[in-house]
């Protein structure tokens, strides 16, 4: 199973990451400000594509946002597309700007 790690700096900027050994294979870059969690970018390295890692990052981010009462600003094209494709699933989280 792929373990997802959240790393934030002292300004609440960072992301969710998936590592295989020492190699970072997927990331979702975020920042948290007040009650807003902004997602900027999601990326999976080419050798790890097709394994659903971006979807796992999305699910983990959504769980984290719900658990902490955050609204999501999906600037990342992947996250924005998923929110638009499944509006009922994410309606409680989506902070539309």
From TrEMBL:
UniProt keyword Endoplasmic reticulum present: no
Domain N-acetyltransferase: from-to ranges: 1-97, 8-95
PROSITE patterns: GNAT (PS51186), GNAT_YJDJ (PS51729)
Keywords in alphabetical order: Acyltransferase, Transferase
GO molecular function: acyltransferase activity, transferring groups other than amino-acyl groups
Protein name (Swiss-Prot/TrEMBL): Putative acyltransferase
Lineage: Bacteria, Pseudomonadati, Bacteroidota, Chitinophagia, Chitinophagales
């Amino acid at each position: 199973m792929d373990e997802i790690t959240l790393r934030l700096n002292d300004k609440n900027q960072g992301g969710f990451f998936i590592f295989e050994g020492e190699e970072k294979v997927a990331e979702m870059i975020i920042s948290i400000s007040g009650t807003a969690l902004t997602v900027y970018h999601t990326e999976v390295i080419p050798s790890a594509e097709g394994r659903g890692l971006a979807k796992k990052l999305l699910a983990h981010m959504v769980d984290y946002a719900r658990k902490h009462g955050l609204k999501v600003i999906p600037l990342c094209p992947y996250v924005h597309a998923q929110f638009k494709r499944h509006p009922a699933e994410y309606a409680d989280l989506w902070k539309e700007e």
